[in-house]
Inverse folding.
């Protein structure tokens, strides 16, 4: 097993007033040649948007874009005719494919919205753009690693993307232990600690730490406190 630890306080950071964003990988003005991507995982942004503010209409193409809110209400609109609100418990995906125009804003004026924006390189270019979102109950993530993102055409229960990648969310009680078996032993896993303290294969991690893991088939996971974790099993690009 090989690992690369990204402590929370080593992430890129940009505070634009209305947007406070932490970047695990190079993004916008944060350019770190040692942190461009992990396999097909290109962007992992930890965003807070002030009340009533947001991202104006802008384009994307040939990227799988996943949004996971942790609090507040994020309103989405796009040129495919979608206008949706995503909240804590929801997972949203856009396959940008041949090109989309979309925007996002904080639906509320009296509180911030917090969410993770994640970009994954697709395994197929110039697909027809698509949109999907699903809600996942906290009870289904309690002391369990629940699949919330999975490849197109599978029956694993997550929103689907054009990549052989699986995302799992877990809300774990202190001292709970579990194991994650990789779907493909050639993949890597990027583990991100949303809240709390967790030990993965002997590596101690804290809130907002990330751990890139390769050459492992099973991850042994122990919650050192009440914790919330996101596992992203990702193909490793050649």
């Amino acid at each position: 097993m090989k690992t690369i630890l990204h402590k929370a306080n080593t992430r890129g950071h940009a505070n634009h007033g209305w947007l406070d964003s932490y970047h695990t990988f190079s993004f916008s003005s944060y350019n770190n040649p040692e942190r461009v991507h992990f396999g097909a995982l290109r962007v992992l942004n930890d965003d807070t948007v002030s009340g009533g503010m947001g991202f104006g209409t802008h384009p994307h193409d040939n990227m799988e874009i996943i949004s996971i809110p942790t609090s507040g209400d994020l309103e989405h609109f796009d040129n495919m005719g979608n206008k949706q609100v995503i909240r804590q418990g929801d997972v949203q995906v856009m396959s940008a494919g041949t090109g989309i125009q979309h925007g996002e804003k904080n639906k509320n004026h009296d509180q911030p919205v917090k969410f993770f924006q994640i970009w994954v390189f697709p395994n197929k270019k110039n697909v027809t753009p698509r949109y999907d979102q699903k809600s996942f109950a906290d009870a289904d993530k309690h002391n369990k690693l629940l699949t919330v993102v999975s490849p197109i055409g599978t029956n694993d229960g997550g929103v689907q993307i054009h990549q052989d990648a699986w995302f799992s969310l877990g809300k774990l009680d202190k001292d709970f232990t579990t194991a994650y078996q990789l779907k493909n032993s050639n993949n890597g896993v990027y583990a991100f600690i949303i809240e709390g303290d967790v030990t993965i294969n002997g590596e101690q991690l804290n809130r907002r730490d990330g751990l890139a893991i390769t050459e492992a088939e099973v991850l042994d996971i122990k919650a050192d406190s009440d914790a919330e974790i996101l596992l992203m099993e990702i193909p490793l690009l050649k």
